[in-house]
């Protein structure tokens, strides 16, 4: 079995997250990392594992512009393909799944 595709937001992107657009923004995260890794996972029929720990703040505009945009682009497959890893941000996972993805 192949290993999951993975993203560690703090090490692969930024420890200090921005807002919707601009430096370290949700838009930049989506365009530079999240979308590419999602396509890689989808094309190879693997899960995308995302580690949330080590980065902050996770503002609603960052979450919507990255994870919301991913859902709007690819639909329900996103919910089944992404696995969130965190020791500290389970509430962020809840916001993404219940408010942004409404799943």
| Counted beta strands | 3
The H-and-E topology, N to C, reads as EHHEHHEH
Spatial gap, N to C terminus: 28 Å
Strand order of the largest sheet: 1-2-3
Helix content: 40-55%
Mean pLDDT: 96
Low-confidence stretches are none
Strand content: 5-15%
Q: Total helix count?
A: 5
The description of the largest β-sheet is:
3 strands, parallel
- Please tell me what the overall shape is: globular
> What's the alpha carbon Rg, rounded to whole Å?
12 Å
Q: Give the structural class.
A: mainly alpha
Supply the number of structural domains: 1
Descriptive overview:
With 103 residues, this protein is mainly α. The chain has one domain. The chain has 5 helices and 3 strands, in the order βααβααβα. A 3-stranded parallel beta sheet has the order 1-2-3. The protein is globular and about 30 Å long.
Features:
single chain; 103 residues; mainly alpha; three-stranded parallel sheet; 12% strand; globular
Q: Short summary of the structure?
A:
This protein is mainly alpha-helical.
Helix-strand blueprint:
Layout: E1 5-8, H1 9-13, H2 26-43, E2 48-51, H3 60-74, H4 77-81, E3 82-85, H5 90-100
Parallel strand pairs: 1-2, 2-3
């Amino acid at each position: 079995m192949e290993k999951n595709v993975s993203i560690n937001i703090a090490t692969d992107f930024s420890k200090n997250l921005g807002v919707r657009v601009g430096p370290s923004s949700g838009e930049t995260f989506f365009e530079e990392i999240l979308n590419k890794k999602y396509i890689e996972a989808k094309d190879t029929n693997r899960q995308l594992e995302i580690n949330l720990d080590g980065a902050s703040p996770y503002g609603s505009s960052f979450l919507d512009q990255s994870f919301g945009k991913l859902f709007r682009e690819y639909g329900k497959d996103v919910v089944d393909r992404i696995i969130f890893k965190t020791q500290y941000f389970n509430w962020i996972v809840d916001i993404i799944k219940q408010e942004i993805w409404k799943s």
